[in-house]
Amino acid sequence: TKHMGRNGYHFFQPSMNTLAQTQLQLMNDLWLATERKEFRLVYQPKFQAPAGPIIGFEALLRWQHPKRGMLSPDIFLPLAEKTGLIVPLGNWVIDEACRQLSEWREQGNIDWSVAVNLSTLQFEQPSLVQTIMDSLQKHGVPPDTLILEVTETTAMTNPDESVRVLTELTDAGVQASIDDFGTGYSSLLYLKRLPACELKIDRAFVRELSSDGDDATIVSAIIALAKTLNLKVVAEGVETAEQQAFLTELGCNTLQGYLLGRPVTPEIISSQGNTLCQQ
Ligand code: C2E
Ligand code: CA
Ligand code: CA
Ligand code: CA
Questions:
Q1: Ligand 1 pocket check for 266: Cβ under 6 Å
Q2: Which of 66, 96, 154, 219 is the most exposed place for a label (fewest CB within 10 A)?
Q3: How far is the CA of 1 from the centre of ligand 1 (A)?
Q4: Sign, Cα dihedral of 48, 53, 55, 59
Q5: pLDDT at position 182, please?
């Protein structure tokens, strides 16, 4: 409740005040973080089902906060989106992923792809296609080794425009992936128009696989649908051997999850080399 105190001081509950302060502080830190180069990418391997080889990685953003340690996107992405910082930050992600790709290629890993996540605001930038092409060229990376992960919800925000942008990118050779599939509301007809090469089943469905019969039905249906549309299927959040076996049996092409590999720094990937497959 908002009671004016004697000195007009008690406008918010103390807890509310602290929360607002924390958010303000975080927002301030977030702007500084770019200059201070506190952002990092970690990479989670994607395995050909059931257990390898590694076909590529998904780049996942982390913030090495000076006081709070390594922060996950859940903590700062909503804020970055609200302030618009996600646009330059997202452009940095694309460029850094391309740089990493070229480094891995120089080390002989020419079959690896890297997937980057695009937020809605970033996806809506008219300069996006040029930004991506510039980074690919700057680092001498073949377009088809870069995969853009766009959530079903992002794609549906402006469906016709999404088809246009993704067509432009895929015409240039870049790959597109529909992320968090099953959580949005895209129609079959729309899905058919999207020039994507793969579909990622949302973790929520994979999580329930062994315990909930209904979700097994949904996952089977998603995989069947993807096959009809000639899309590869990636399952994310694979945590148990049971899920791994079941998803493979259902025809999933690619598996990603803690069971096979957690997101790790590029240093760890370089030092482990190909033994990463046997993790
Ligand atoms: P996402 O794209 O769905 O990414 C998968 C998330 O699931 C990652 O969380 C990953 O670490 C986590 N994960 C992977 N395997 C498992 C598993 O077996 N079990 C469980 N419980 N989790 C698993 P993370 O890294 O915290 O990222 C969260 C979300 O933040 C991502 O969800 C993505 O939407 C967003 N994000 C991450 N990096 C970027 C980025 O560079 N740009 C944008 N726009 N969004 C990003
Ligand atoms: Ca993703
Ligand atoms: Ca996802
Ligand atoms: Ca997700």
A1: no
A2: 66
A3: 37
A4: positive
A5: 81
